[in-house]
UniProtKB/TrEMBL annotation:
Family the UniProt entry places it in: Belongs to the protein N5-glutamine methyltransferase family. PrmC subfamily.
Reaction equations catalysed: L-glutaminyl-[peptide chain release factor] + S-adenosyl-L-methionine = N(5)-methyl-L-glutaminyl-[peptide chain release factor] + S-adenosyl-L-homocysteine + H(+)
Residues where S-adenosyl-L-methionine binds: G128, T129, G130, T131, G132, D151, W180, N194
Protein name as catalogued: Release factor glutamine methyltransferase
Keyword set, alphabetical order: Methyltransferase, S-adenosyl-L-methionine, Transferase
Amino acid sequence: MKDAMIQTPANLRHLLSDAATRLRAAGIEAPQREARLLAAHAAGTDLAGLLRIDVLPPGSHDTFMQILQRRLDHEPMAYITGHTGFWSLDMVVSPATLIPRADTETLVEAVMDHLPDRNAPLHVLDIGTGTGCLLLAVLAEYPQAKGIGTDLNPDAAHLAARNAARNGLSARCDMLCCNWADGITGPFDLILSNPPYIPHADLNGLMPEVVRHEPARALDGGADGLVAYRALATIVHDLLAPGGIGVLELGIGQDHSVPALMHNGGLQVLEIRPDLGGIGRALVVKK
């Protein structure tokens, strides 16, 4: 009966209630908010604008039904809407890259504390840039800085360039398709990376949104989750300028193993900064 009610334009309150019930049954967290976000996107408005709507127009109703099914299939909301916020920026996203997470903002906070001169003409390298979120957030905070973002996936590099243009930062960065930092010459005052760090055996235990929809190559850290860090230890050491810092994202429980790899690579750990959940998230190193 509910499915029949929700197939044609209906009172928005009833439509949202039915959608929330279906989202809850699918195991989606905060189903009422998710239903409202989907309806707002379908109607081309925001949550405040949705308050002024009693019935979705036929075209918007059809769109709502389509994107509701996508969310019921655990497609991430950011892929459905096509964008998400990171730091002070609005980032376009696609299945070519991971969706930027709030935990990753911990790296930007660490950069700002360790490099307090906001007018410094920093030369920045972001390895595995994805959407470009880390590099672009730093460039937004340091108006004299310039940078390079690299990604093995050409679609990701193209998306990062699109985000640079979207946020008015194209003139101060280049997004390149390459493996790690192949062909890149330093030195750099700041090296950033949010590398793949999930142990291969743990991938299938991640949330359905991640397992089914986000790119496995951007998550898979090999048998022990540390493959990328072994490469990064050498790259950071070789490309870091005197007095420069590297800031790398860590996975859960890696705040002991990764610092040891960095030490073996000739780097000194300055800080392991926790995210809001208390997990050691941002590793700060220097030569």
